[in-house]
Write a structure and sequence with these properties.
Length: 388
């Protein structure tokens, strides 16, 4: 089937073609042009060419209506006589050529073959019943023109379909190539990361061995201790360089920026202020003797509070949350509680935050528990503290 919905520009083109065609055909009748044959009625011929021009205007928007326009000629008559149409070049053959081109260029499926057969049948019937069309030169003329126009339209359609298919294949090939390239980059980065991890692990092992030896000989052999400290400094510097390479390689390209200091429990007031600015009232309470936490554990405690508050804003309709940090003798206990009902809609990726909190806590031998109240939700994390 031909395109059903046309843009304003396409409508303008089709209507303009129909108007110009009707104008030339009327001039052919009334001037008259030498192309007019037969003794038909000028009035009947004018009605015929106007009706068929209107059908041509609908050849893409209403293709079956345009095809039905072929019935205009048999109804009004194409044989000689005062009450019938003239035999016209611009008013009959040219519209037929336009219709044939449109069928071949834009027609698909059933319409393509029904329309083509209709044009062929129409010409055959005209040749059989219109004496003026039965001369060999006339038959050769109009059949050659119709065949040439149809083949031209079909050739353009095949070429455009082939170009579209090639464009689709090129896009698919480009997408596959990009995907393969990204996969190769990811695999290569993972391999390099594993190698750098081995380098860093070896460096850390050397530092531990040298530090242990220096600790044992700090009083008996100061020169050895000085040498060991130098080795520790060089090895630590090399390990830091390799670690920066790992981070730079695995960092998302769009993140950019220099490496900023990692946050910790000392950054919780800023985190609370940010949550309040987002519309969530947060009460932070810290009890117990605040200990100096290892950097990794300090970051883990911060991330747990951060993720818990994010979950409150994302999955709860609560307007308030309580954050409590209890420093015990052997563990740090973190509790984040809200009393708001759960949102009816679920955000994409729901549940990943809890998994991340549990993984972080488990890395330091701790655990995370969650409790659902009526209403409300509580996250409780326990992080063991190493004895000082």
């Amino acid at each position: 089937m031909i395109v059903q919905r046309l843009s304003r520009g396409q409508w303008a083109v089709d209507i303009t073609v129909a108007v110009l065609l009707a104008g030339v055909a009327l001039a052919e009748i009334w001037v008259p042009f030498e192309s007019v044959q037969g003794d038909g009625s000028n009035l009947v011929s004018s009605v015929g060419v106007v009706l068929f021009a209107a059908a041509i205007a609908l050849r893409r928007a209403r293709p079956w209506w345009a095809l039905a326009g072929l019935l205009v000629w048999p109804v009004l008559g194409t044989v000689n006589g005062a009450d019938h149409m003239h035999l016209l070049f611009f008013g009959q053959l040219v519209p037929l050529l336009i219709l044939g081109f449109t069928i071949a260029r834009h027609g698909t499926g059933r319409y393509l073959w029904v329309g083509t057969i209709a044009v062929v049948v129409f010409l055959t019937v005209a040749d059989l019943f219109v004496p003026l069309l039965q001369e060999p030169s006339e038959i050769l003329f109009h059949w050659a023109f119709v065949a040439l126009v149809w083949l031209t339209g079909r050739g353009l359609r095949v070429s455009s379909d082939r170009a579209a298919a090639e464009a689709v294949r090129a896009h698919q090939a480009e997408t596959e190539a990009r995907t393969q390239a990204l996969t190769a980059v990811a695999e290569e980065r993972a391999r390099i990361a594993r190698e750098l991890h081995d380098v860093v692990a070896h460096s850390v092992g050397v530092i531990v061995v040298q530090a242990g030896a220096a600790e044992q000989l700090v009083e008996d052999d100061p020169d050895f201790v000085r040498q060991a400290l130098g080795t520790i400094r060089r090895t630590g510097s090399d390990a830091l360089v390799e670690m920066r390479r790992v981070v730079a390689m695995l960092r998302e390209p769009e993140s950019g920026g220099e490496l900023a200091p990692q946050p910790g429990t000392h950054s919780l007031p800023e985190l609370v202020d940010a949550a309040r600015a987002a519309g969530l009232e947060v009460d932070l309470r810290v009890t117990g003797e605040r200990a100096q936490l290892p950097a990794g554990l300090d970051l883990t405690a911060y991330r747990i509070v951060q993720e818990a508050l994010t979950n409150v804003r994302r999955h709860s309709r609560a307007t308030r949350a309580d954050v409590a940090m209890l420093y015990g003798s052997d563990a740090l206990e973190i509790t984040v509680r809200d009393e708001g009902p759960e949102r009816e809609e679920r955000s994409a990726g729901a549940g990943h935050g809890l998994v991340g909190m549990r993984e972080r806590a488990a890395l330091f031998g701790g655990h995370v528990e969650t409790t659902t109240g009526e209403p409300g939700f509580t996250v409780r994390a326990v992080l063991p503290l190493e004895p000082v």
